[in-house]
UniProtKB/TrEMBL annotation, chain A:
GO terms for cellular component: ribosome. The keyword RNA-binding does not apply. It is found in: Cytoplasm; Nucleus, Nucleolus. This is Ribosomal RNA-processing protein 42. Transmembrane segments: none annotated. Residues 100-118 have a biased composition (Low complexity). Residues 96-118 are annotated as: Disordered. It comes from the Eukaryota. Belongs to the RNase PH family. Keywords: Cytoplasm, Exosome, Ribonucleoprotein, Ribosomal protein.
From TrEMBL, chain B:
Residues 54-105, 144-270 form the Exoribonuclease phosphorolytic domain. Pfam families: RNase_PH. The lineage of its organism: Eukaryota, Fungi, Dikarya, Ascomycota, Pezizomycotina. Keywords: Cytoplasm, Exosome, Nucleus, RNA-binding, rRNA processing. The keyword rRNA processing applies. Residues 55-70 have a biased composition (Polar residues). SUPFAM superfamilies: Ribonuclease PH domain 2-like (SSF55666), Ribosomal protein S5 domain 2-like (SSF54211). This is Ribosomal RNA-processing protein 43. It is found in: Cytoplasm; Nucleus, Nucleolus. The keyword Cytoplasm applies.
Automatic annotation (TrEMBL), chain C:
This is 3' exoribonuclease family, domain 1-domain-containing protein. It is found in: Cytoplasm; Nucleus. Signal peptide: none annotated. Keywords: Cytoplasm, Exosome, Nucleus, RNA-binding, rRNA processing. Gene3D superfamilies: GHMP Kinase, N-terminal domain. It comes from the Eukaryota. Belongs to the RNase PH family. Residues 41-206 form the Exoribonuclease phosphorolytic domain.
Length: 393, 411, 322
């Protein structure tokens, strides 16, 4: 029961006293320069170690570990599947014939468009977190949150690009497609909200994913080259210009299209903080998961999805101001307290006394958080650049 | 009036408002209503203001749900049931036992199926009710073509946890609906069958085959003497009947069954035929070609609960009431002291107080001057109701049949 | 594994019907429904509270059927409905004491539960909640928790259950799933859930900061006669069946009195949409603002429904005291 309840919130509410919560909140809300418990700057990420292709039985895999000991492993498996000959498929096949007979009409081009695109349901994601059942709210919510930008990205264009995004890449021909199983395992207890860790690991695993090379042509039943070296990357890479790509890690940025990453951003008073730790997320006013990816055309970052996450600060225990505390009633300390209005929440508060957050988040705050992720030279680019440094393949 | 009756019987020292008295002493509260002091000249009336044999106001609405073949909303007082029927297709090749038991049926003439009947227009009045083959509907039960499920996990009452597996009550209600669907033979098996007329393989027939296959089956059947040899069942319609109890305030079965009845009357199945090239069943999307189910009769369910004045009487030793006891009861009846009441259409409050349950499903045979037919009779939880009382209940249910018939006729 | 607690259909499984018109366009070859509303015009909402007496609070919500759907209802030609309109019932049970085994909570513990009826969508839904239904539950919980003043009920629980009787389509039924296919209908369902749950909570007399209302806005592309797909446009309260493709959509749960968003769910790729044309309005911010405008519209209906609920309650309590 308890686990179920907490699962629904952003993560387990840490057992931090109201006084500590108030202290963390105050230091994080210092105007302009928040002081984080671990001394990072507001946009700095926790150090991590990463490796890819660790599981030989998968099409692609990755492991990422944070310095605090939390680790995640992601394995990607691909299977060939017959495209369901449901109503749509029948529609397509027969309508095209019909269109051919009648000399084509406006319907046929709509159909042709459709035939090159895949379906979101071909990507399946399962997340396993110790202490949670796989149908608990947290794993389901996380899986949907990470799957969504993955199938939503319809980056097109260019040679070596992916027409129709990941979904389009999974189409083999009209009757066959790949089905992608992404299994995410968190190896340790989730110390903080596991989203950033899982997202980064999934990103790397997808980058390293290879599909065997197709030997059949057109509408034949597909068969594949069994030479694993000939396999093609799921996210295609352009021919590297560098002569020795493996020696210089920085030059491996040959992916034209990259899987999206989901960043966890919190706001505390006026400040926006990235990659929050457990204590920081516990006092956050608002928590957003923002998914971004590279836009192949403009070279800028583009937004794929935003989701609010229920901040655990709403479930915390309130502190008791001295003026209401029986033990200190009438003492001089009580008289010194004065009620102020918190500028970000608009609620009356006694400084130094923790109140659980309530209410929502202002539009301006959301805009600010998204801007910090998307802007040129912003945090999003920084993260993607950092990930490109990880040697893949 | 309800409150005045309660106040008059409550001890004067304790002046509780009626609502609290009802909660603290539910049994005494209901009893006080049902047995007003003889001096007051008031009729025996239930706490909810109804007479013992009075049903709650019932209203139905059909066809409001877009994605269903037939749907209905039934409000029985504060109990609300929504029923939606979705039809899907079961290919005979997906039936494991089909090839063994039935595939040869079309070629052997002395098989139990009558093969001339199914193309008869459903709208036509069937006057051959008596000469129908006895096991006509065995397909429905054998292949579970009717799949009713009732859900109480809709927040309809505080006791049911949403998301939990169906409670015992929900399971039993689902099964009662299913068994009533089977035993009442409400749905005709031939309405659910999808036939295929294999074309005679003459050369000119083969050419015309492509146009013919979309024609109605009975057109193809014309003039061909060897019908019985080439017609076969290729698929069945399966009706998924899902009942959501949106609000529960007693007597869910009557509400659920009325909803099923109304939804089945609303159900339209598209015309379907076997497409030999695609090896699948194709449906026409024309409303003009879709047909309604032709239901057998209109079995209406009426539930009753027996409220006993002596709360402990349900626990007495199990003995057949002997003459002495009979005499006592008869005597008290003469004195006008009623010891038990049969309450029609109990609400949630009454259901908690009365153990014995009677459910009558009756129909009126239209062909025989509205003769009352008992389709099903269920009685459990006690032994207060005897033959005489059951007869009276049948009469009450017959009245209820008229009511429901009228209500369903309106929508 | 078969579900022993339910009545199962044929063990071999059944298939949904395939219609002839989807194979060969016939005379009644249905046409894509057209949006008859202005881009910023919202559908009418039917919202009523207190229909379920055994619950502490309840509400029923229905979206106005689209023009094509009501036309199809009036003179049915095809058995395939052109579109559908949201219908859902919401109940609130509580505040009630937590289970004995539950740990102490200084705040009201909210449990949200969204379930589609098996007949709610074009495809039959299972009896057990699937991932999308659980996902909706979490979204709804986030939206409501920000609005409820939870510390007034320590050690208590509040169960919110929503039964979706009819859901919105994700796309027009005859469209092949295209590159933009996704569960767009789910976002409309969520907006409806938020508004309905808010009414039911108010009907249960739980203290809230404000009535939180749900709204949807989307960037959609339509078919035009001349050149296939038109330029994407921003529209409020979209019905996915009306449009050729939905590029991006956004739901918000919004509290007008505080101008705050308790729940934001935006998805879709609009980078392509804003590149081709010079419309600088097609940004995620415009999308959020559009959804907020839609939520403001829903709020007016919500306020009316809650006023009715309050009047009924006042009438009830004054009746009791006499």
């Amino acid at each position: 029961m308890a686990a179920q309840r907490q699962a629904s919130s952003a993560s387990q509410t840490p057992h931090i006293s109201p006084a500590e919560l108030s202290y963390i909140y105050t230091s994080l809300s210092l105007p302009g320069a928040p002081i984080r418990p671990d001394g990072r700057s507001a946009t700095q990420f926790r150090p991590l170690s990463a490796e890819t292709d660790i599981l030989p039985g998968t099409n692609g895999s990755a492991r990422v570990g944070f310095a605090d000991g939390t680790q995640a492993i992601v394995g990607v498996k691909a299977e060939v599947e017959r495209t369901a000959l449901g109503i749509e498929a029948l529609t397509q096949a027969e309508q095209e014939e019909y269109a051919a007979e009648t000399g084509g009409n406006s319907k046929s081009d709509g159909v042709k468009q459709g035939s090159s695109s895949g379906q979101g349901s071909w990507v399946q994601m399962a997340i396993e977190i110790p202490g949670f059942r796989d149908d608990d709210a947290l794993p389901v919510f996380l899986a949907e949150m990470m799957r969504e930008p993955l199938v939503e990205s319809v980056a097109g264009g260019g040679e070596g690009g992916m027409v129709g995004g990941l979904k389009g890449r999974l189409v083999i021909n009209r009757r066959w497609h790949w089905r992608l199983y992404i299994d995410v395992l968190l190896l340790s207890q989730p110390l903080s909200y596991p989203l950033p860790l899982l997202s980064l690991t999934t990103h790397l695993a997808l980058l390293s994913t290879k599909l065997p090379k197709l030997k059949s042509k057109g509408e034949e039943d597909p068969f594949f080259d069994d030479d694993w070296d000939a396999a093609e990357y799921l996210y295609p890479r352009a021919k590297s210009t560098s002569t020795k790509p493996s020696s210089i890690p920085g030059s491996i940025s040959v992916h034209k299209v990259r899987p999206p990453v989901t960043l966890l951003v919190v706001s505390v008073a006026e400040n926006v903080i990235f990659d929050p730790s457990r204590e920081e997320i516990a006092v956050a006013d608002a928590v957003l998961a923002i998914s971004v990816t590279h836009d192949t055309d403009s070279g800028r970052l583009k937004l794929l999805s935003i989701r609010t996450i229920d901040p655990p600060s709403r479930l915390t225990q309130p502190g008791v101001p001295n003026s209401e505390n029986v033990a200190t009633l009438g003492s001089t300390a009580a008289a010194e307290e004065s009620v102020i209005i918190n500028p970000s929440t608009g609620e009356e508060e006694v400084p130094g006394v923790w109140r659980p957050r309530r209410g929502g988040v202002k539009r301006a705050t959301i805009a600010k958080m998204v801007k910090m992720v998307l802007e040129k030279g912003g945090v999003g680019e920084e993260v993607l650049e950092g990930l490109e440094g990880v040697e893949v393949g | 009036m309800a409150s005045s009756a309660a106040v008059s019987t409550a001890p004067p020292a304790l002046s509780l408002p009626p609502s609290q008295f009802a909660r603290l002493q539910p049994h005494a509260y209901l009893l006080a209503h049902l047995s007003p002091p003889a001096s007051s000249q008031q009729p025996s009336i239930r706490a909810n203001g109804r007479a013992p044999s009075q049903f709650r106001v019932t209203s139905t609405n059909t066809g409001s749900l877009t994605h269903t073949n037939g749907s209905s909303v039934v409000r029985l007082g504060d109990t609300t049931a929504v029923c939606g029927i979705k039809a899907e297709i079961l290919h005979t090749e997906d039936i494991a036992s089909w090839s063994v038991s039935h595939s040869s049926s079309s070629s052997t003439p002395n098989k139990r199926r009558k093969l001339t009947n199914p193309t008869e227009k459903p709208g036509e009045d069937r006057q051959d009710g008596s000469d129908e083959v006895e096991d006509d509907d065995s397909y429905i039960e054998d292949f579970s073509l009717l799949v009713p499920n009732l859900s109480l996990s809709t927040g309809c009452a505080p006791g049911f946890i949403p998301g939990a597996p169906p409670s015992a009550l929900a399971q039993s209600l689902s099964h009662r609906v299913l068994s009533l669907l089977h035993s009442s033979r409400l749905v005709r098996s031939e309405d659910l069958e999808i036939w295929y007329q294999r074309p005679n393989l003459g050369p000119e027939e083969l050419e015309r085959h492509n146009e013919d296959e979309q024609m109605d089956v009975d057109v193809e059947q014309d003039g061909s003497g060897s019908v019985g040899e080439t017609r076969e069942i290729k698929a069945f319609w399966v009706l998924y009947i899902d009942i959501m109890i949106i609000s529960l305030a007693g007597n869910p079965f009557d509400a659920a069954w009325t909803a099923v009845l109304a939804a089945l009357r609303d159900t339209k199945l598209p015309r379907a035929w076997w497409h030999a090239d695609n090896e699948t069943v194709i449906c026409s999307d024309l409303v003009s070609e879709a047909r309604r189910l032709s239901l057998r009769g209109l079995p209406v369910a009426s539930s009753f609960r027996v409220f006993e004045a002596d709360a402990a009487s349900g626990w007495r030793a199990v003995i057949v009431p002997d003459a002495e006891e009979e005499r006592k009861i008869a005597e008290s009846d003469r004195k006008g002291i009623q010891r038990r009441w049969v309450l029609a259409d109990p609400d949630g409050y009454e259901e908690g107080l009365a153990q014995e349950r009677v459910c009558l499903v009756i129909d009126k045979d239209q062909r025989q001057n509205g003769k009352v037919v008992i389709v099903k009779m269920e009685k459990n939880g006690g032994f207060a109701v005897d033959r005489k009382e059951l007869k009276e209940l049948v009469a009450v249910s017959a009245q209820r049949w008229e009511e429901i018939n009228k209500i369903l006729g309106q929508c | 594994m078969t579900d022993r607690r339910r009545i199962n259909g044929p063990p071999g499984g059944t298939r949904p019907p395939v219609f002839a018109s989807s194979i060969k366009p016939t005379t009644v070859a249905a046409e894509r429904p057209q949006r008859q509303r202005q881009p910023n015009e919202l559908r009418k909402i039917f919202l009523k509270t207190g229909l379920i007496p055994s619950a502490s609070g309840s509400s029923y919500l229905e979206f106005e059927p689209s023009a094509s759907l009501s036309a199809a209802r009036a003179s049915p030609q095809s058995v395939i409905p052109p579109s559908s309109s949201l219908k859902l019932a919401c109940t609130v049970h509580g505040p009630k004491p937590l289970a004995r085994s539950a740990t102490f909570s200084p705040n009201l513990v909210l449990t949200t539960h969204v379930k589609y009826a098996p007949f709610a969508a074009r495809q039959r839904k299972g009896h057990i909640r699937d991932a999308s239904e659980r996902d909706l539950g979490v979204h709804l919980e986030t939206a409501l928790r920000g609005a409820i003043v939870a510390e007034r009920w320590p050690k208590s629980g509040l169960d919110i259950t929503i039964t979706v009787l009819e859901a919105e389509d994700d796309r027009w039924w005859a469209d092949a799933p295209d590159s933009h296919d996704a569960a767009w209908g789910m976002m409309n369902v969520l907006a409806g859930c938020i508004t309905a749950a808010s009414a039911a909570i108010a009907d249960a007399r739980i203290d809230c900061l404000d009535l939180v209302a749900g709204g949807v806005a989307a960037v959609v592309a339509d078919e035009t006669a001349e050149r296939g797909v038109s330029a994407p446009r921003l529209m409020l309260d979209t019905d996915p069946a009306d449009h050729r493709s939905t590029l991006s959509a956004c739901v918000v749960a919004y509290m007008p009195a505080r101008d705050e968003i308790t729940e934001l769910w935006l998805k879709g790729d609009i980078s392509k949409a804003s590149v081709g044309i010079d419309d600088k309005n097609l940004t995620h911010e415009a999308l959020i603002d559009g959804a907020v405008d839609a939520a403001r519209g829903a709020h007016s209906v919500l306020a009316e429904a809650v006023r009715e609920s309050a009047e009924r309650f006042a009438g009830l309590s004054s009746g009791k005291s006499t």
